[in-house]
Amino acid sequence: MSRIGRKPIPLPEGVRVAIAGSRIQVTGPLGELARNLHPEMIIEREDSQLLVRRPSDRRQHRSLHGLTRTLVFNMVDGVHKGFTRSLDIVGVGYRAELRGTRLQLALGYSHPIVVVPPQGIKFEVPDPTRIVISGIDKELVGEMAAKVRSYRPPEPYKGKGVRYQGEQVRRKAGKTAV
What we know:
The protein is α+β, with helices and mostly antiparallel strands. It has two domains: about 5-80, Outer Surface Protein A, domain 3 (Alpha-Beta Complex); about 85-165, Alpha-Beta Complex (Outer Surface Protein A, domain 3), CATH 3.90.930.12. Helices cover about 20% and strands about 40% of the residues. It has helices spanning about 5, 60-80, 140-150; strands at about 10, 15-20, 25-30, 30-35, 40-45, 50-55, 85-90, 95-100, 100-105, 115, 120-125, 130-135, 160-165. The strands form four sheets. The chain has a four-stranded antiparallel sheet with strand order 11-12-7-13, covered by helices on one side. Strands 1-6-5 form a three-stranded antiparallel sheet. A three-stranded antiparallel sheet has the order 2-3-4, covered by helices on one side. The protein is elongated. The N and C termini lie far apart (about 60 Å).
């Protein structure tokens, strides 16, 4: 049996869960998330925790078991604590600034790049070379971080570009004179 799927999901204080068929809605102090899960997965509430069960040991049900539990856990964790992703900007003249809720990036192009946050995402710029993306939906936070990084991914020769905080960039040696 799935080791991840077997684990119960604890419901923290202030988090409410509504299950209607295959749709689950989680409400907490930071907001509300809803998602349609696979209709064959069984989600039950016991006391102050949720359990995800599978109907059979078929291959598809085994693979959906851990996935469903992780998706529900991320929803509960998101409305309770929220998620953040930090990006570092490396390079001379590369910087970020906040204009209202929009993020403006100067990444060596002839024009600034303006990123409009989708609903539920918040940008913070503690200093010009660091961006913090936060929100309650883990998928959306990761997607926005990947989108911002894609505007200038780190290059292997000088290491310039936008990288995740703590990301190691494999460096290459440049040309050598003969």
